[in-house]
Structures are given as C-alpha cells and as structure tokens.
UniProtKB/TrEMBL annotation:
Name of the featured protein: Uncharacterized protein
Protein's organism: Scylla paramamosain (Mud crab)
One annotated GO biological process: interstrand cross-link repair
GO cellular-component term (any): Fanconi anaemia nuclear complex
InterPro entries attached to this UniProt entry: FANCG, TPR-like_helical_dom_sf
Superkingdom of this protein's organism: Eukaryota
Length: 468
C-alpha cells in the first residue's frame, strides 16, 4: 500500500483506537516520514469523549489493562510524536499513573527545550516518583537541575544533579553539568575534579539495558553518547589547557591519541537528545586536531622533542589553502586552521631544538602559504570570528620569528622588514576587545578556543616554559 493510501486510511479510521495507536507508533518510530502527515490529520478528532464508547480490539486492552489506559496511551504517543517534531505541547492535567508520568515528563522536556524553565520545573514538580522507575527518577532530577541552573540557582541545581547521578548510572553525563555549574561559580578546582571523576567513572561497568514502555519511548528521544569517556577526556584536556595546567593536559591528550585510531574524516553525529547541545559534552574532533592540541601542551612545558615527534610528517603547507578560506564551509576552514597551526608548531619546535636552518625554511614556506590572510574584520562581519583571528595570530607569529632569525643572522634590512610587519599585525590584534566565538564551527569551537589562547599567550609572552 502506498503512503498516500495509508494517510487516507488514517482519515477514515481515525476514530478507531487501534488505528490511532498504529499510526502514532509510526509517527514515533519514523518521525521524518510519518510525523507531520499523522499529526496534521483530523486533529479535531482528538477528544476525550468518544473513545470510551468505542470498543477497542481485545488484544490492545490486554496489553494496556483498560480503555482508560488506552486514552492515556494515545495521549502519550501523540505528545511523544509532537516532541520529536519540535512542536509545542499544550499542557493538560495528567494522572499520576505510569503512562501519565511519562507524558508529563515529555511535556517538561518540551518546555525546557523552548527555554521556559519555570514551567518545566513546575511540570517536573508534579511528577510522582512512585509511578517512576529508578532511571526515570534520575531523568526527572537531571532535567530539574538543568532548569534550576538556567534560572540562576546553582547550589540547588548541584543538589539535584548530584542526586540524579546517585540515582542511576545512566545519569553519569550529569557530572558534566555539575562541572558546568562549578565553572559558572568560579570553582575551577572543583570543576576539574568532577570532570576527572567523570572520566574515571565512565570506565566502570555500564548499567544493563532495561525493558519497559518508559525506556522504549525515551530511547526514541535520547541516544546515550557511545564515546562518553573519550569526549569527557577531550573536554577535560581543553579545560586543563585553559587553566594553564599544561602537563596534565598533555597526559590526557596522550591517552586520547593512544586510544583513537587516526581518522581525519568529520563525523558530526546528530543523535536525538532530551537535552540541548550546550548541556552535553562536545563531540570528539578529528585526529589532526588532537595532534595539534597535544603538541601545544608539550610546547607549553618546553617539551619540544615530544612536540616534534607528535607533528612529524603530519602537516604540509599545501593544506593551508588560499583566498577561498573566508567563504569555505566550517569543516574546510577548520582543516586550514589546524594545518596552519600544526605547521607553525613544527617550525617552532625545530627552532627551539637548535635546528635553525630547517626552521627558517619552514617559516619562509609558511609566509608564502599565508599570503591570503587579511586583517581581522576585513571579511565583512561587524565582529571578528575566532577562526579569523587565529589565522592572523599565526601570520603574526611567523613574522615575529622571522624577524628574530634575521636579527641573529645580522640581516638588518630583513629584520626591520619583518619587525614592521609583525608590529602592524600586533596593532590589529591588540585593538580587539571581546572575541565573538563563531557558532558555525561547532563541534570544533572548543578546539579553536584553545588554539586561539595558545597563540594569544605566546604573542603576549605568557608562555614561560615552566611546568604548571
């Protein structure tokens, strides 16, 4: 039977409880194909009056228990389908039953995702824990903690989130949200300790699967991260770097590189989630990004030999691109940023190890490859993007080091030439006040932030080579 014929059948048989269940199940299981047609069918037929007078098939009542359960089940399926479509859900009074509890929770999720934190918390507050399974209770606590954090109640949020983690191992990702709250409070030590706990706890034995209606439906809305430990360790590494704990950052990045097979393809998974992107751990970047971050961590503690070993034969100036950079897609721009950063780090390491001639050749090749990099703000936007600033930082660093090399070589003309170019770039960079991070670089925005901070610290003279 063709899809159009099925929709016609739906319109004809809409007042049959079994037909409603069937089509709403299709809308939940295949929301991209079935969601809109099913939900846009004769909505006026959704009433509470007619169903008790209709005799549902016996098998459906055997599964649910009664015709009253059938009403709740149909309501639950429709609310679930609406949430999958991102459509608003009108709040109604639901019973404190097994089915009504899940319906109310999905409504709270919808309200949270739309930014209505107060209503979401009110809806969660009216959920009876008696009708919830333990993992469902943890979800209620987790979502409530996030809502409280967004309403500026961090301490109450911490208690809710901690309770969620203790309630069920499936709520382990809530540790990331606890770390976020500590970061907002300026408690960096506590934040890093929680992230470290997340990495270590994630290596334990996972909770076994549960078979129930609650979790069968929730599984349609939420896909648990399959690489939770690696994502947590990546985020921890970046936060350690940002807090200038370079040795610890290097150790965590080494562990990641040892575990992650080389893969420079961009995987941007889009699993369904009950949470918003900002509430979940950043996804893993490509192997090349991890190499650059690890090299930066080693360079920051004057471990130049390790940095050189990490970067050997990984990057070439051919990959740095050209003038189309400012119009490329985020993935292509990121490849250029990473290639340029890797090349300049490799040249820095050579210079630090006394291989001046090889370093000089690499810096000359870099200068030629970066001919297209222009001043920040020239790309047309009112506020500079961080990737734009990073490329100017790299070009500035190349000029600065070339001026130093020519000074040592006694080439006065070249020394003054590159000194002037470096100063012009530094003047542009120093005029910047607040950098607006470009959201289009997600999931690599965190890596860009770290790369930006490394070069900023280097140009500002903050990297002293001491272990912190």
């Amino acid at each position: 039977m063709e899809f159009s014929e099925l929709i016609n059948l739906l319109k004809l048989e809409w007042k049959c409880g079994a037909a409603q269940v069937l089509f709403l199940l299709c809308a939940n299981l295949m929301p991209d194909d079935w969601g809109q047609p099913v939900l846009q069918a004769d909505v006026s037929a959704w009433t509470w009056e007619w169903l008790p007078n209709v005799a549902p098939p016996p098998w459906l009542l055997d599964v649910l228990g009664s015709s009253e359960d059938l009403i709740e089940f149909i309501t639950l399926l429709r609310v679930s389908a609406l949430l999958l479509q991102g459509a608003p859900i009108s709040q109604k009074e639901w019973k404190d039953s097994y089915l009504g509890t899940l319906t109310r929770f999905l409504c709270a999720v919808s309200q949270y995702q739309q930014g209505d934190y107060s209503r979401s918390l009110d809806t969660l507050h009216n959920i009876s824990y008696i009708a919830c399974e333990r993992r469902m209770q943890a979800w209620v606590l987790h979502l409530g903690g996030l809502g409280l954090a967004n309403l500026g109640k961090p301490h109450t949020a911490l208690m809710k989130l901690q309770d969620a983690v203790e309630r069920s191992p499936a709520s382990l990702p809530a540790l990331y949200n606890i770390a976020q709250v500590f970061q907002s409070l300026g408690e960096q030590r506590a934040e890093l300790e929680v992230l470290d706990l997340l990495v270590k706890s994630g290596r334990g034995k996972p909770e076994g699967p549960q078979v129930s209606l609650h979790f069968s439906l929730l599984a349609l809305h939420h896909t648990p991260p399959g690489n939770l430990i690696s994502r947590a360790q990546y985020y921890l590494s970046c936060r350690l770097f940002q807090e200038k704990k370079y040795l610890e950052a290097a150790e965590n990045l080494k562990s990641l590189l040892d575990e992650k097979a080389p893969d420079n393809r961009y995987h941007i998974p889009t699993p369904r989630s009950l949470l918003r992107p900002k509430d979940t751990l950043p996804t893993l970047p490509t192997y090349s990004v991890l190499l650059v971050l690890a090299a930066m961590a080693h360079m920051s503690i004057a471990s130049h030999q390790h940095a050189l070993r990490i970067l050997s034969h990984q990057f070439t100036t051919k990959a740095i691109g050209g003038s189309t950079f400012y119009h490329d897609c985020p993935e292509d721009r990121m490849k250029v940023v990473v290639s340029a950063a890797g090349q300049v780090l490799h040249a820095q390491a050579l210079k630090a190890l006394g291989q001046e001639t090889e370093a000089f050749k690499e810096f000359i090749r870099l200068e030629q490859a970066l001919w297209w990099v222009r001043g920040v703000g020239d790309s047309g936007g009112d506020s500079p993007e961080k990737w734009e600033t990073v490329m100017l930082q790299i070009k500035t660093l190349v000029y600065k080091i070339l001026s130093e090399i020519h000074k040592v070589r006694g080439s006065s003309q070249n020394y003054h030439h590159y000194t002037r170019l470096a100063k012009q770039c530094l003047d542009v960079l120093h005029k910047l006040q607040d950098i607006v991070s470009g959201q289009d670089l997600c999931p690599d925005q965190l890596a860009v932030d770290v790369i930006y901070e490394y070069f900023k610290n280097f140009l500002d003279g903050d990297l002293t080579g001491k272990i912190k």
